[in-house]
Design goal:
With 182 residues, the protein is an alpha+beta fold. The chain contains seven helices and eight strands, in the order H-E-E-H-H-E-E-H-E-H-E-E-H-E-H. The chain has helices at residues 2-14, 37-40, 44-56, 76-88, 114-126, 144-154, 171-177; strands at 19-21, 29-31, 60-64, 70-74, 102-107, 130-133, 136-139, 160-165. Strand 3 (60-64) and strand 4 (70-74) form a beta hairpin.
């Protein structure tokens, strides 16, 4: 539960939800842009504690605005952590009808970026891609935005290619795997 609340708050901050602290003695929170659904279930005391923890971990910083409220802002480290959470939750949606296009990710990532290469390989498998070869993965459903996001998070844009293809050899076994037989 604690991790879920942390994750939710960081992701909300990443999407631009603005949290502020008042200078009143009670130090209550005011949500500037209205209280999103995700925060309604987190108790104010818990929210206050988590934000304090984020501040101590240097994931957020405080900035006083012209209204005298102290805004809570994600730091670069906070953004990275929030992006990591977003990456963990990534899923590829299955459409009602397959467009008969394969999405193929090809990469040649240098040895000095081995960790990023292994992270990419693991993430592709995690979101449902199937390995065609060591650095070639295929998926039948639209996922270009998801791949672009993963590539940006891992900072490997120059080494990754995204291809759409109508067919490839031995594709029948992959159609079976994805339950796409006509």
């Amino acid at each position: 539960m604690k991790r879920d609340a942390k994750k939710k708050i960081l992701l909300l901050l990443l999407t631009g939800v603005s949290l502020s602290l008042s200078k009143s003695p009670r130090g209550y929170f005011k949500i500037i842009k209205g209280l999103p659904e995700g925060l309604k279930e987190i108790k104010r005391k818990r929210l206050r504690g988590l934000v304090r923890e984020f501040y101590n971990d240097r994931l957020v910083s405080y900035k006083e605005n012209k209204d005298g409220l102290t805004e809570i802002i994600l730091t670069k480290d906070g953004e990275k952590k929030a992006l990591k959470f977003k990456l963990e939750d990534m899923k590829i949606k299955k459409p009602k009808k397959w467009d008969k296009q394969w999405r193929i990710v090809i990469f040649d990532i240098p040895e000095k970026l081995k960790r990023a290469r292994e992270a990419l390989r693991g993430k592709l498998k995690d979101i449902g891609f199937v390995e065609l070869q060591k650095s070639v993965f295929a998926h039948p459903f639209e996922c270009e935005d998801e791949i672009n996001f993963v590539v940006e998070v891992f900072q490997i844009r120059p080494f990754v290619r995204f291809v759409k293809a109508n067919s490839f050899t031995n594709e029948e076994q992959f159609r079976i795997k994805f339950d796409l037989l006509d």
